[in-house]
Specification:
Rossmann fold, alpha/beta, five-stranded parallel sheet, 45% helix, 13 helices, single chain, six-stranded mixed sheet
Length: 333
């Protein structure tokens, strides 16, 4: 059984309620039909009746709960609490109403805040910033978390590397240029996410254009500093760097470039030095390696709020919904 099929089966064991705020996108309903048919999750779709009817033509979404913000009995409560949450930041009652009524991601996050749903999946037709800004304002980071970060689960077909071709790539969706302390925190969160979702021991490679001092540059130093922080503050994590990608994955190359490293040649969690590298890397593997890419998923939030690539397929949305359910079952992530 492949990764996403295993995740779907886990989701079915303790069915959670997920909000889908993008009722303006046909892919939302194509995914919803599959999720409902397979009983992966209970679904709430936020939208007006006419928009939902138009975009779901020919699809069976009868099992979903449709919430129209204009007549739902809790809408004013959502507005009032959102205003209270943000008034110290200059929020007014009028602005709170405008955001809640016209940006359904805010509405969806308030549903999770109130406990009316367990998680949110959005981003098929909105940017990552538009998806995550409401999440950070309303759901916020989990207490004690050092950094909210984004990751992709990558499933590469016919691949002998990683966990039978399954990897986590981080941060590939949120933090532009993390410093060494932030890279270490991202590694910690990613190791936990890998263990929870994949069920195998995380082996974390902190990537660079250099392997073990083959190049000298501040960007390389940033990575080696992060590794030192990991060894000091997160000694339980199996991590090493700096490593070039081939040294991280290929045992034969690892023996030449990083002899003695227990991570080199065995990595299944790839930590990129910045967002450019992470985002480019995941898209290369997805498009040229024909990998399944699920994300960007978030880690470190109070409750699971997950993003989608705007190039996602309905099957990608189904997968992210299933992952969100499993995250909701394991709230520590």
């Amino acid at each position: 059984m492949g990764f996403i099929d295993t995740i779907k089966e886990r989701a079915k064991q303790d069915v959670k309620t997920i909000v889908l705020p993008e009722s303006m996108d046909r892919r939302t309903f194509e995914a919803a039909e599959v999720v409902l048919k397979e009983k992966i999750a209970n679904l709430i779709i936020v939208g007006t009746e006419d928009v939902v009817a138009e975009n779901s033509k020919g699809l069976d979404i009868s099992g979903a709960r449709i919430i129209n913000p204009y007549d739902f009995y809790k809408t004013q409560d959502y507005i009032d609490v959102f205003y209270e949450l943000r008034k110290a930041k200059g929020m007014t009652p009028e602005k709170a109403k405008d955001l809640i009524m016209n940006d359904y991601m805010y509405y969806a996050c308030m549903m999770v805040k109130f406990g009316d749903a367990d998680g949110v999946v959005s981003g098929a037709c909105h940017s990552t910033a538009a998806t995550l800004k409401p999440s950070l304002q309303i759901i916020k980071a989990r207490p004690g978390t050092k950094m909210v970060s984004g990751f992709f689960v990558m499933c590469v077909p016919d691949c002998e590397f990683g966990a039978d071709g399954t990897f986590i790539f981080a941060d590939a969706g949120l933090n532009q240029n993390p410093n060494p302390e932030e890279l270490a925190a991202i590694t910690d969160s990613s190791a936990k996410s890998f263990e929870m979702l994949v069920g195998q021991k995380p082996i974390c490679a902190l990537l660079s254009h250099s392997t073990k001092g083959s190049a000298k540059h501040p960007d390389v130093t940033k990575v080696t500093d992060a590794v030192n922080i990991l060894k000091m503050n997160y000694p339980h994590i199996m991590a090493d760097g700096e490593l070039q990608l081939d040294a991280a994955l290929v045992p034969e190359v690892a023996k030449l470039k990083a002899p003695g490293s227990t991570v080199a040649g065995n990595a299944n969690v790839l930590i990129f030095p910045d967002l450019d590298a992470g985002n480019i890397g995941y898209k290369l593997v997805e498009r040229l390696g024909k990998a399944e890419a699920y994300g960007p998923l978030t880690q470190g939030m109070n409750k699971p709020i997950n993003d989608l690539s705007r190039g996602c397929s309905p099957a990608d949305i189904v997968g992210v919904i299933a992952i969100t359910c499993v995250q909701a079952q394991n709230r520590r992530l």
